[in-house]
Amino acid sequence: MPENKSVLIQMICENIPDAMYILDTHGNTLWYNNAILDVFCCPSRSMYEMIYAQIPKLLRSEQLNHTDNDLLYQKTVNENVKTADWCQIIDTNGKKRMYFIEQYPILDADGKVAYVVGRTRSQEQLDAEYSRIQSKLINYTTRSHNPMKLRTNSGPDAAELIYRSPKMEEIINQLDNIADTSATVLIQGETGTGKEVIAKYLHRKSSRCKKSMVSINCASIPDSLFESELFGYTKGSFTGAKSNGKAGLVECADKSSLFLDEIDSLPLEQQSKLLRLLETKQIQKIGSTDSIDVDFRLIVATNQDIHALVSERKFRADLFYRINVVSVTIPPLRERREDIRPLADHFLQKYCWKYNLNRSFSETVYKQLEEYSWPGNVRQLKNFIERIVCTSDICVREINTVNLAAEPAMKAAPVYQFSDRLSEFSNLHEADGSFSLDKYLASCEKEILTSALNTFGTAKRAASYLGIDPSTMSRKLTKYNITKTRRYFSAGEAGE
């Protein structure tokens, strides 16, 4: 047990954000934590031990900025008192930096100083902390009439919703109203808007939360495995089957919630099987003639236009009517910019904690984030925050600017410039000489689509840039009989 306690204390000390060290009465460094490397801008422990390990020697040097020329360390040892003062030290880059150093005496049984425990923070750290607190105070003042909403649950399906926008408030209120019903819910929204988070929140708010929600990505299940994965199978039902059979995912969702993501990717044959399941609430394992009753709450999600797929006969109309009991549409991040700052704050704190770092954003960075369109929505914002937290300079506390121009959606130049010279479109006039707006708009759309396809190389990337669904892009390409003619490469793609 003492060994376990020792390990625990060691772990705690190593992860304290303040730089700490322990000295003996001769000024030798006995221990120091990892944070001290960050404070002194040392890339490794070996470099720190070579340059800074003898901290009292530094304090005895002329670098000490102390009014009575007394030495902090000597004063701590000789007078058995806590000492604190500013000290000017040259860092590994040859730059003079100010550090605030505090030292505490540790006494032995005879009341004499046995050890000195010290901690230090750089002036940049303290300034950044001051700016962070000041920024929070300003933000609190400005947000007092429009506070951030944070909804969280505990458990295996914990979901955390962070928002401030009225649009999200309306959605969450709707979810709260239907949470404890058995109504099927259709969640729609662009990729990265947080559809699964919404599904988890709905499940945790329901009376079915005692069991974990079963999540299935329909796009990841091959057609050949659809029935066995969803409905299960009995012993010896096919070659390679487990000796004891297998329970299907639907059976596992009994008395719980079943979440089907990307339901639009299901082939028509599998859609009919899903429809029968919803109508009967029964499953039949492969290799069995017995039916098993299942009680689950269905939640489905899609990033496609289901209505369009139904019109194109790519999605069964009867299945659509079955799943479209309660419809929830998650707006993209560009349509709820009020949520960008609280989400950025949340991800910043999350990844600072994960990587044991101390970072903050300046007001300039917040404005940059709010002005960006975020085509990848919350997922893109989350990944971007993690990236800049990890890659920022080790000595930087407040991040003052971010390179949003390096984001994939910003690398390409505009694909089309509209022309206001209608005379160029002489073929768009009707036989009687009148101008056809429909033909003009169709011509513009065709030219935009063609240019986007040639620029980005694939329909999926072109659709992402234009802000439309890939299925819509594919449909329009077919409509106008557009094919890729050439491919433009950016400097970073030339070798791909």
Category by helix and strand content: alpha/beta
- At the fold tier of CATH, the topology name of the largest domain is Rossmann fold
- Give the number of domains: 4
Estimate what percentage of residues fall within beta strands: 15-25%
Helicity, in percent?
25-40%
CATH superfamily of the largest domain: P-loop containing nucleotide triphosphate hydrolases
Largest sheet: 5 strands, antiparallel
Number of helices: 19
| CATH C-level of the largest domain | Alpha Beta
CATH architecture identity of the largest domain: 3-Layer(aba) Sandwich
Low-confidence spans: 58-70, 141-146, 152-158, 410-426, 486-496
Overall outline: extended
The overall pLDDT, averaged over residues, is 78
Distance between the termini: 56 Å
Strand order of the largest sheet: 2-1-5-4-3
Strand tally is 18
Radius of gyration: 31 Å
